[in-house]
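Figure S4 source data
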Amino acid sequence: MSIIGIVSMKGGVGKTSTTANLAAALAAKLGEHRVAALDLDPQNALHWHFGLDNWQTSGISQRALNLGDWTNAAISTPFNVVCLPYGDATETERETFELLLAEQPDWIGSQIKRAKLDHDAVVLIDTPPGPSVYLHQVFACADLVLMVLLPDAGSYATIPAMESWLEQGQCGNPLALVYYVLNQTDQGEPLNRDAAQWLQQRLGKRMAPIAIHADEAVSEALAFQQPVLAYAPYGQASHDFAQLALWVINTLNQ
């Protein structure tokens, strides 16, 4: 089993859409029952990307508190991705769940192993932006961490904090591979293009070789509660996510 954490220092960079669309792209290449997407963000938005608008069962946060595990928390989707939603938790439930995670730093990793997923499954974990107890859990169990950036000055300014954060986060799992992924690139926009070049120069080989181009189909797909590969399979973003999925598979197999 391989675990991929999708993280960011700031919000609004497309982290959740990257998680969902990369999961769908991996499922297209790996087949059924091989890919799962786990929502560790209290915003509880990941399931919308997979058409689970009528989903009524409790999420992982409530199940952790009521049952002690994720028994039957995994939900099959029409896109060959198993989704484990965070759940519509109350403030008290969220605080109690976060206390549990703080007290048991390897809890998420142990639950993934007990979630009845295939032994060769790939699990993607969406996280809230910035340092958090969720982030520490991801670093403790992830084989690969992808840090999502936008090609703008705001993302460039967060790099020093990101680097410090990485040094601290990797203490629990120094073997995790960490790469930056550039999202919403637009070569036709001068500032966007220049920022992308600055980030590439600053990060060098730590930048994933596949960037995700700006594509309105990504937002449109979410409006229809679909991954972009299902909504616009021949679009630019779909091509990018397919290439990124192939790179992820090769990186995990090295």
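Figure S5 source data
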Amino acid sequence: MQPLLSRFLANRVSDALEANQAIALLGPRQCGKSTLARMVLKAYPESVVLDMERPSDRAALEEAEAFFDANSEHLICLDEVQRVPELFPVLRVVIDKHAGNGQFLLLGSASRDLIEKASESLAGRIAYLELTPFLWEEAACSEVGFTDFWVRGGFPRSLLAGSAQASMDWRQEFVRSFLERDLLQLKPRLLPERARRLWMMVAHCHGRILNKSQLAGSLDVDVHTVGNYLDILEAAFMIRRLPAFHSNLRKRQIKSPKIYVRDSGILHALLGIEDYNALLSHPMRGFSWEGLVVDHILARIHPLAQVSFYRTAKGAEVDLVVEHAGETVAIEMKASAAPKVERGFWSVLNDIQPDRAYVVSPVERRYSLKGLVEVVSLEEIIEEGLAEGWLR
């Protein structure tokens, strides 16, 4: 029997329901949104749950306003709500009519579609939370060790699969299903095979500067088409674009974003990395570690914090810069247990003058470099960020 792992977002969802008329819980397919919703709904025993992918549940909303009015005393949970954008004007009317908090819990797998449709109708009435696949802090109580977690990623069925092969099989099927089913629900005109090729290219560019012209040339399409496909992959939480740091420093800085596949397990499936031994010898290992740490930090980033990376035209770089409450934190990622930082890293610290600087590596105990930089583990950088307030 698979263990029931806790999610740090659970309390935040409950608190948000108490404080807002509607909540949208967003995240990729099969990351655990429905499971988390069931946990939260235990406090609302008379809640009503409808899945918008189930024909019978969609039929129940043919007279949506009447249905919502009839159940106005109960919390209503709508799963895969991006499938029914026509509901949002009705939701606005019902929410305003009944006025109280905790009326709707909306679950969605397409951030952009859901946010755009909701923002047109529900501005000031809805709060958004994003659920990622499992983070290590949530998975650490399972029987899966950290190296397996890194290889498998955080999607529940991949993480908790009975074997490495079963995990890889699930992820490969997830990729196939997303391309052949979910992608076409988001944008019917997109070509699954083209999206697959682009996704594979992004995997090989993971952690590097995005070059849309290069991708367009490889796909034999124009840059605008590449941008459309990237937008959809990002809206479905499959990839992430990290913006470049902008400042008034008198140095030529890279302005294009970095690009990442958002889950390490999906990245490894796209790259054909089957186990930790294969990862250890793979040239993408360092970039994989970087993406893993970025995922964990951005999953808990304070909503008012600004995140970016810094890189000059000469190649001096820091992987992540966090700006919050007037302070700047510089974070470098190194997959080695004995990390060595390049001269360019120190040059960047001199440029941006951060208040604190870290190197995040799979180390067993923290230590300092030159008395200026703390070398810490993944767990410790999360603890530091929570203590300092730029994570929450």
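Residues 311 and 317 are 4 Å apart (CA to CA). The chain has three domains: 9-130, 141-242+256-276, 300-392.
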